[in-house]
């Protein structure tokens, strides 16, 4: 079926809005009006992305930031009509479409992921899991589950420390292990954890609800710790702290 005039105008209009440097404007739309549309559409998208990635924006402030958003706007085809998911679309663009560029900070993909996690947890439809009343007294007597609002994460760069005044050019020798979570007051927080605690949380993430003793025993085996009882004792203190934060809950609450 031949393309109708209004369809051609819509296609040309959208193409120019997305990529004005490469796509000509429709011939029958006034240039001043076209410029107004272009500015309004772009500013809307830029505002959503800046809100989701404020640290990255502060680092790339100015022409570098504008060029990054313009490239996303021109190249990426969003798979969702929801404004709240534009940040996830931007993350997909960084990971699968943009590719490394000489002027990009080496930590940019990880920093963007970390900032997206904070936004994703802020809008997630889930609740902090409850704790059994006796949990504080004896954490090892319970079956644990990881909160749906707690994500254990490992990064090459210390993403939680990066900002305009701290931009590492090389990752440190050891990865940065974090748990980012939403607490009972609906505040998104993070805490840096050691590799053993990170592994404890990923065991719960991988296996689902698990008796605390079984989880810590598995951890001691993986660490080849000479004193498994010490791992249980130390693990009990770690679990108390994670329970207070809302990172873990119990299935018998």
UniProtKB/TrEMBL annotation:
Superkingdom per UniProt: Bacteria
Domain Putative DNA-binding, chain residue ranges per copy: 9-94
Domain NGO1945-like C-terminal positions: 147-242
Pfam families: DUF2063, NGO1945_C
Stored InterPro entries: DUF2063, DUF2063_N_sf, NGO1945-like_C
Protein name per Swiss-Prot or TrEMBL: Uncharacterized protein
Gene source species: Methylomagnum ishizawai
Lineage: Bacteria, Pseudomonadati, Pseudomonadota, Gammaproteobacteria, Methylococcales
